[in-house]
């Protein structure tokens, strides 16, 4: 009996593996033509500043509307784009879209609005990365202080020294660096000390726990204090409930980003939201 069950389990597992593998292959195949087919779009999620009660920034989030697969989550395709290095042209495309979009909003009177773009390890480790960023900023005549690059701790674990050098160069140019998903991985407080980080984004898992347990609340409150005392701007990610908002306000979190305020939106909808 046990043997039989074991065998069934094995078959099931095998089938799941198969399915995951073939899905991955399909994504990989379709990704290669997706750019030429104009299947990508950049959405923007507003970041709401609690003090000024205004939208002060936008996070660029990539969307893929595949003609064959429909909407594919970035959680599924970013990894494939990284493994195939397609993330290099794709990431550059996102940067150009985001810079052009925020520049257009500046010209419509929203000076100072920032745009944050997620950057993969593959991109940052590519030689000439800093030059590329500088070229993009110049070609859009964008104030460098209005561009923020979001990196995660995985980038740091892999090649600290190289990343450290590149980030310092970018920071000197006025570009902002955000540490994304803070607290989610193997966060090292050492990174906070050594890196030129302007913004700390508290991972959604902590924000979730604010409405669940005292430990979550305590950690969240202390991350805010720690980041702020190091001169960083603190953003709470994935704020969904009023209760979380009230807690974050009470402990002087700077900005919130989440469905409570707004989902990521197509550029046209963001314009409607911002330009009255
Ligand atoms: P991330 O950078 O941490 O982005 C935040 C994610 O949380 C986004 O998912 C956003 O839609 C989602 N989110 C925001 N507020 C809420 C909320 O209140 N509740 C819930 N449940 N979710 C919320 P999305 O757009 O699916 O992106 C997932 C991840 O994919 C991003 O996480 C980022 O790591 C990656 N990604 C997205 N676009 C790009 C890109 O252009 N380049 C790179 N390298 N990665 C990207
Ligand atoms: Mg991000
Ligand atoms: Mg995040
Ligand atoms: Mg995340």
UniProtKB/TrEMBL annotation:
Domain EAL: start-end pairs: 24-276
Range of the intact protein held here: 581 to 856 of 856
Official protein name in the record: Diguanylate cyclase/phosphodiesterase
Domain of life: Bacteria
Lineage: Bacteria, Bacillati, Bacillota, Clostridia, Eubacteriales
């Amino acid at each position: 009996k046990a043997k039989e069950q074991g065998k069934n389990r094995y078959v099931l597992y095998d089938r799941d593996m198969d399915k995951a593998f073939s899905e991955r292959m399909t994504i990989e195949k379709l990704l290669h033509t997706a750019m030429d087919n104009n299947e990508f779009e950049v959405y923007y999620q507003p970041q709401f500043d609690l003090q000024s009660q205004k939208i002060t920034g936008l996070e660029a989030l990539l969307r893929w509307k595949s003609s064959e697969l429909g909407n594919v989550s970035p959680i599924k395709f970013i990894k494939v784009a990284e493994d195939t290095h397609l993330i290099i042209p794709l990431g550059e495309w996102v940067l150009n879209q985001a810079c052009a979009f925020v520049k257009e909003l500046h010209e419509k009177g929203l000076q100072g609005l920032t745009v944050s773009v997620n950057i993969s390890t593959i991109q940052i480790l590519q030689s000439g990365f800093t030059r590329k960023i500088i070229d993009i900023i110049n070609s859009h005549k964008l104030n460098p202080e209005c561009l923020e690059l979001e990196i995660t701790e995985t980038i740091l674990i892999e090649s600290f020294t190289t990343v450290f050098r590149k980030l310092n160069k970018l920071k000197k140019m006025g570009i902002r660096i955000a540490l994304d998903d803070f607290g989610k991985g193997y966060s090292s407080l050492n990174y906070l000390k050594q890196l030129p980080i302007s913004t700390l984004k508290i991972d959604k898992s902590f924000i979730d726990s604010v409405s669940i347990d005292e430990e979550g609340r305590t950690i969240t409150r202390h991350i805010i204090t720690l980041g702020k005392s190091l001169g960083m701007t603190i953003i709470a990610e994935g704020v969904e409930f009023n209760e979380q908002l009230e807690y974050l306000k009470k402990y002087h979190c700077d900005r919130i980003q989440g469905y409570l305020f707004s989902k990521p939106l197509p550029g046209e909808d963001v314009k409607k939201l911002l330009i009255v």
